[in-house]
TrEMBL record:
Transmembrane segments: 12-32, 78-98, 110-126, 141-168, 180-200, 206-224, 236-253, 265-284, 305-325
Keywords: Membrane, Transmembrane, Transmembrane helix
The keyword Zinc belongs to this UniProt entry's keyword annotation: no
Protein name per UniProt: Tetratricopeptide repeat protein
Length: 735
């Protein structure tokens, strides 16, 4: 048991170090942003020769993919708040142990007091849901954690000076003093540089950020506290450490930057004050040991004349005065951070009105804080309030300009058809972020909307130069070449991009080569792929199907059509269904589907489909197939592939009758006549099939039609028709 107890300080040090490293990692990474890039793809129709292999000059549309950026608002995440709550509960438990040990209160009294307090709170709020309880308890937790982090900053402000004192100790007094004075001077200069950058006095990169110094001091302070013999002080420091990090984790992850800045402001004050007072503290208490070059860092916490806690109280008084001498900036920042944190919790509770109100309360204390503005912009975007969204985005970029904020604003103006405002916003953004490829992409789009094609092409090329490995920029250059006749893509780039796995690039590349009547590179891959409900996938599927025709693999298009998402996003999928049927041995079904589309579509599209329909029908009539048919299966397959071949029908229909498939034989002959009403050669077969099916009136109408179309052919079948009619009449009498 004693061995396990002795291991506790080491475990606490390891845990606290990992927690500090975790927070430092989030700080360096930056946490989640309130805005995120999202690629948007548009389908742009492009006219090409649909059947270049034939004499017809039938033009039809394929699709180009034009891409740009959309900025999506990001909601906060719940797990950091939940993790913080768990750490907070552990911290409060340790704090309770410290209070019990310090005040000499029995556990029975503490437990009874907590039980009564919880009972009263529960009785007064019995109707609250689980999430409402969490929100209710979250508010005091954030307050306690904020106080804890303020106290921890003061208690740990001496950790770095103590550590510097320890590592500067040498074998002789002069060397020790020189090292310590050098380390402390360097530390103080870094603090001043950090303070100036934090408060906007100057801009420099030659300093260690304040937050990193704070985490280092927290970890060192935790390590030093574990050396203390009094366990209650260890529990106090551990409790403050856990409570502090219980709020730091959600602040950092959900990018509550105003809270981090408040902590940094308070921390930089406490560290500067301690840096100035610590040498005085050392000299006052340890003048003789210092002159003898003793290792005084081992007994700092046992000062004889001025205890360290009195120095820490002095630091607290100085820093509080300093805060309010700066018009209470750090105070207003931490209050704004508190409301932002409450707003995040209300977001998960689902009360949008309360969530908006809490974020607005945060703006009362810090109008320009980014967290509140972006959160309110997210709420406005969800509500469809474009004006409010634009206002909050503009406010957020006054102090913290971001590429995404400018692009989001430009998109709002563009959606309202205010393209000049969009262009001006993007030009301003380019001045601040000249190396931004997304801004160059958006400038290209804005100029294109304003019909300034040369400028649009210029910025498309710039975007490619700024992000040479981006498939979006490659696809956009190909789009400009095809749609606007630009010459932006070189031959070596075509060969290189032909191996691209990006579907927008492949689709636009295929369109470019098709329009220019160039052969596909050998590396161009035309294999089937898993199609998602995505514009880029649809463009590649559509263009590939039209280009490769029967060479492309079959896709389950009929299943996709049943999904409303497909029809809503890609209504052309119905035409593609007919196209695939035609080039995969289902031509008659394709003709019927396309005929329905002709009746449904608008006039211009109906004309295009009608021309394709005529081309298909003529192509089927021109086929002179020589197929040897020996059984029913071969007969059915032959009719399916060559529905308008007289020779095939003459061979296949008798085999269908032998297999007792009389209705199929009739339907095959009927389809041939319906699609070729002006061709007399199909009528004799249909008339005989109609008589066999007992459709005497239909057969007589067809005979009259045949007599007008080709009297000689009709005359040659007169006897045959008469016998077939007599048999049909006799069957009816018998029935």
């Amino acid at each position: 048991m004693k061995q396990r107890i002795d291991q506790i300080p080491a475990i606490w040090f390891l845990f606290s170090s990992l927690l500090s490293i975790f927070c430092l990692g989030i700080y360096v990474w930056g946490g989640i942003e309130g805005l995120a890039w999202k690629e948007i793809s548009e389908l742009i129709p492009q006219s090409v020769s649909l059947f270049p292999e034939s004499n017809t000059n039938l033009q039809s549309s394929i699709f180009l993919v034009r891409q740009h950026y959309y900025v999506q608002s990001i909601s906060p995440e719940f797990w950091p708040i939940l993790l913080g709550a768990i750490l907070g509960i552990i911290g409060l438990a340790l704090l309770g142990q410290f209070v019990q040990s310090w005040a000499k209160i029995s556990w029975k009294q503490i437990f009874l007091g907590i039980l009564i307090w919880c009972g009263i709170i529960f009785w007064r709020n019995v109707d609250l849901s689980a999430m409402e309880w969490f929100s209710f308890l979250h508010s005091p937790w954030v307050m306690i954690a904020s106080v804890a982090i303020a106290l921890l900053s003061i208690l740990s402000s001496s950790a770095i000076p103590s550590f510097l004192l320890e590592i500067s100790h040498s074998s002789d007094k002069v060397s020790s003093q020189k090292k310590y004075m050098g380390f402390m001077l360097f530390y103080l200069i870094n603090l001043i540089l950090s303070m100036g950058n934090l408060w906007g006095f100057w801009t420099s990169t030659l300093y260690v950020p304040t937050f990193i110094l704070l985490e280092i001091s927290f970890a060192l302070g935790m390590a030093r506290s574990l050396r203390l013999e009094e366990k209650s002080q260890q529990k106090l420091y551990a409790a403050l450490f856990l409570l502090s990090h219980s709020i730091l984790i959600p602040f950092l992850w959900n990018n509550n930057e105003v809270g981090i800045r408040a902590l940094e402001s308070w921390g930089i004050m406490t560290h500067i004050a301690m840096c100035l007072l610590f040498p005085v503290f050392l000299w006052t208490n340890f003048k003789e040991p210092i002159q003898q070059n003793l290792a005084i860092y081992k007994v700092i916490h046992k000062a004889h004349f001025i205890p360290l806690f009195l120095i820490q109280i002095g630091v607290f008084i100085v820093c509080v005065s300093w805060v309010f001498a700066r018009q209470g900036t750090a105070w207003h920042q931490i209050v704004a951070a508190y409301y932002n944190e409450q707003g995040d919790v209300e977001h998960f509770g689902g009360d949008r009105m309360l969530e908006e109100m809490v974020y607005k309360n945060a703006m009362i204390h810090s109008k320009l804080n980014q967290k509140s503005n972006l959160s309110l912009a997210r709420i406005s975007q969800a509500a469809g309030d474009v004006e409010k969204q634009a206002y909050y985005l503009q406010t957020s970029q006054i102090k913290y300009p971001l590429e995404k904020t400018f692009v989001a604003l430009a998109n709002i103006y563009g959606n309202e058809n205010q393209w000049f405002e969009s262009l001006f916003t993007l030009k301003k953004a380019q001045q601040l972020f000249p190396e931004s490829a997304p801004i160059a992409t958006q400038l290209s789009r804005a100029y294109e909307q304003l019909k300034q094609i040369d400028s649009a092409a210029y910025y498309a090329v710039m975007a490619k130069e700024l992000a040479p490995k981006s498939p979006m920029n490659e696809a956009n250059l190909l789009y400009f070449d095809v749609h606007h006749g630009s010459q932006l893509v070189h031959k070596d780039e075509i060969d290189s991009w032909s191996t691209s796995s990006d579907h927008a690039v492949k689709s636009n590349l295929l369109a470019k080569l098709w329009k220019n009547k160039q052969a596909l590179p050998r590396e161009f891959n035309q294999e089937a792929f898993a199609v998602q409900v995505d514009v880029r996938d649809f463009a590649l599927l559509y263009n590939s199907s039209l280009y490769f025709k029967g060479q492309l693999d079959l896709y389950p298009i009929q299943e996709w059509i049943k999904d409303p998402n497909w029809l809503q996003k890609f209504p052309e999928i119905t035409f593609l269904d007919a196209w695939q049927d035609y080039y995969h041995q289902q031509p008659l079904r394709a003709l019927n589907k396309l005929d329905l589309l002709v009746q449904k579509e608008n006039e211009s599209k109906a004309i295009e489909y009608r021309l394709i329909l005529q081309h298909w029908k003529l192509a089927l009539l021109e086929i002179k197939a020589k197929v040897k048919i020996e059984n029913f299966e071969q007969a059915r397959a032959a009719i399916q592939s060559y529905p308008f071949s007289v020779g095939i029908l003459q061979q296949a229909l008798p085999l269908l009758h032998q297999a007792k498939k009389h209705q199929e034989a009739y339907q095959a002959s009927l389809a041939a006549v319906q699609w070729n009403e002006e061709l007399a050669e199909f009528y004799p077969m249909y008339i005989q099939e109609a008589f066999q099916q007992g459709e005497i009136s239909y057969a007589e109408e067809a005979m009259a039609r045949l007599k007008k179309l080709d009297p000689e052919l009709f005359q040659s079948y007169t006897v045959t028709f008469a016998k077939a009619k007599e048999k049909a009449i006799n069957r009816q009498k018998f029935n």
